[in-house]
Amino acid sequence: MNRRIPFGIYMPMVKTVKENMDNKPLAIIFMLLSALSFSIMGVMVRQVSSLPLAEAVFFRNLVSTFIAFSICIHSRIPIYRKGQNTKLLVARSILGLGGVIGYFYSIQNLPLADAAVLNRMSPFFVLVFSYFFLKERINKLQVLAVILAFAGIALVIRPEFNYTVLPSMIGLGAAVFAGLAYTVVRKLSHTEHPSTIVLYFSAISVIGTLPLLLFTFVMPTPMEWLYLLLTGVFAAGGQYALTYSYKLAKASEVSIYSYATVIFSAVIGYLLWQESLSILSIIGISVVLVAGYLNFRFSEKKKVLVK
Prior knowledge:
The chain is an all-alpha fold. It has helices spanning 10-20, 24-47, 53-74, 86-109, 112-119, 122-133, 140-157, 165-188, 194-216, 222-248, 251-254, 260-273, 279-306. 47% of the residues are buried.
C-alpha cells in the first residue's frame, strides 16, 4: 500500500534518517557531485556570456522552479502552510538572487577558478553573520581562519585597478549575499522543507528577473538555448546533491569537500579555455582552501569538546 507521509511528521523523520543513515562515503560522493555540478554550471554560464546576464539568471531559476515544483507536487509537500515563515523565505530568495547575479557576472568576466574561490568565501561570511544575527559562538581559531581567508582573497583580487577589479569586487559581494542567504537558510531549516526553500528562491528569482529580461531579451541560438537549459539542470542538480549529502552525514563531516568546486573549475577552465592562473592567484586560492580546512577542523574540534 502506497501511503503518503504528511508534512507535519516529516521533519522528525528527517532527523531520524540523518541519525540512522550516517553514510559518510556516500555523503562525500554526493558533495563532490554537487561541486562538479556547480562547476559545470559555471561553464554553461560562460558559454552564454554573449547574451544579457538576466537571461542566464532567469532560465537558471526557471528550470529550478520547475524541478522543485514537481518534487513538491509528487511528494505532497505543501507550497504554503499555516505557520510558514513567508517573510524569511522571501528574504532568503532576494538575498540569494543578488548572490546568483553577482556570481554569474564574475564567471563571465574572470577565470573560472577565481570566480569559484570568491564564491567559496560565503561560508566565512556565514560564520560572521551567524555570530551577529543568530548569536552562534565562534572561537578564536575560527576568527583566525576568517582573517586567513580574506588575506587569500586579497591575493586573488590584487587591487591593481585594472579590468579585473570590478568583477572581483562584484564576485566578493555575491559571496556576501550568499552568506546572508545561507544564514537565513540555517534559520529556516528548522521548520521548512528543503524543496520549499528552493522553490521560493527559484520562483521569486524568476519574477524578479522577468522585467529586466523583457527589456534586454536577445534571441538565443539553438546551442545557447541548450546551454541555458543545462545551466538550470546543473544548478538544481548541485543543490539537491548538496541536500542529500547533508542528509546522509553531518555537515561538519562533509562541508570541506564543497571546496572541490575551486579545483574542478581550475581544471575545466584550463582544459576548455587554456586559462592560466597567476602565481598570486594560485597562492591566494591555496590560502583560502587552507582557511576552509582549518575552519572545518576547528568545527570538528569544537563539536568533540561539546560532546
